[in-house]
Design a protein that fits this description.
It is a single chain. This protein is mainly α and about 110 residues long. The chain has four helices and no strands. The N and C termini lie far apart (about 50 Å).
């Protein structure tokens, strides 16, 4: 994870804003793919999108996969309430995603 002091200062500032406005902060993560092992597939898709060769596109500096609770806890060390607030929101959602089933949009052809 990025250990950027500017990012740490930003998080602290955002926490102060949330507290002063009685808003619960949440923890999020930029997710482009589900599993850590899918990083290379994401690179290939980026190449296709940008019409580049794999050697021409930079390697992803950060892993944009769906992180576990433990990984998020490490990423948001010192900001644990935001993790609990995220879990609270998740518990209010009723969504089941079947991993083995592809869901494509329906476009009626008339």
């Amino acid at each position: 994870y990025r250990k950027d002091s500017r990012l740490q200062l930003l998080r602290e500032y955002l926490f102060k804003i949330c507290k002063s406005n009685n808003v619960k902060p949440v923890a999020t993560n930029n997710v482009h793919y589900l599993q850590k092992e899918d990083k290379d597939i994401q690179r290939v898709l980026r190449c296709i999108l940008k019409n580049n060769n794999i050697s021409e596109i930079s390697n992803l500096e950060e892993d944009y996969y769906f992180k576990s609770y433990e990984e998020m806890k490490e990423k948001f060390l010192g900001f644990e309430p935001s993790l609990e607030n995220t879990i609270e929101i998740g518990n209010k959602c009723d969504l089941v995603i079947e991993k083995s089933k592809f869901i494509f949009p329906i476009f009626p052809c008339i």
